[in-house]
Design a protein that fits this description.
Helix content: 25-40%
Shape: globular
Distance between the termini: 9 Å
Number of domains: 1
CATH superfamily: Nucleoside diphosphate kinase-like domain
Number of strands: 4
Number of helices: 7
Bound molecules: 3'-azido-3'-deoxy-thymidine-5'-alpha borano triphosphate, magnesium ion
Largest sheet: 4 strands, antiparallel
Strand order of the largest sheet: 2-3-1-4
Oligomer: single chain
Order of helices and strands: EHHEHHEHHEH
Strand content: 15-25%
Structural class: alpha+beta
């Protein structure tokens, strides 16, 4: 079973989309194993988005992601990393399909509502960056084999 890191960005929190987003992941059948509202420090933002350090948009990206509270989550399920990215939609909301979170709610690429890990390695790295081990809860649900 995979775990992935998902985060409602400051614009999503400001627009009251936290509940809507949790709802979509729950309905899909994933299990919530960790969640918290937090403000990201500059240091954490620069580490999290380290791969974009040389890009022209890096400064703006760090300013945006630290500009207000984010809602960080860990979701678990089969193929959670890929499936979460599919629920989220393409990076640029103008290219994201309707029915995806960015397709339904996103407006511009620099403020695209939500983050999801892009690989298993990123998921492990990001979960460890944002959560302590004792903030992740492992529990069983009494449901059918189709729900994780
Ligand atoms: P994240 O989930 O935020 O990592 O987005 P995603 O993986 O879909 O896309 P990447 B390429 O990782 O974008 C990271 C953030 O940088 C913003 N961005 C990206 C721009 O502002 N301009 C650009 O030209 C590109 C390519 C979008 C992402 N964050 N926000 N907000
Ligand atoms: Mg990314």
């Amino acid at each position: 079973m995979e775990k992935t890191f998902v985060m409602v960005k400051p614009d999503g929190v400001q627009r009251n989309l936290v509940g809507e987003i949790i709802n979509r992941f729950e309905r899909k059948g994933f299990q919530l194993v960790g969640a918290k509202l937090m403000v990201i420090s500059n240091e954490l933002a620069e580490t999290h988005y380290g791969e974009h350090k040389e890009k022209a948009f890096f400064g703006e990206l760090v300013d945006f992601i630290t500009s207000g509270p984010v809602f960080a989550m860990v979701w678990e399920g089969e193929d959670a990393v890929t499936t979460a990215r599919n629920l989220i939609g393409k990076t640029n909301p103008s290219e994201a399909n309707p029915g995806t979170i960015r397709g339904d709610f996103g407006v511009i690429v620099g403020k695209n509502i939500i983050h999801g890990s892009d690989s298993l390695e990123s998921a492990e790295r990001e979960i460890n960056l944002f959560f302590k081990q004792n903030e992740l809860i492992s529990y069983e649900k009494q449901v059918s084999a189709w729900i994780y």
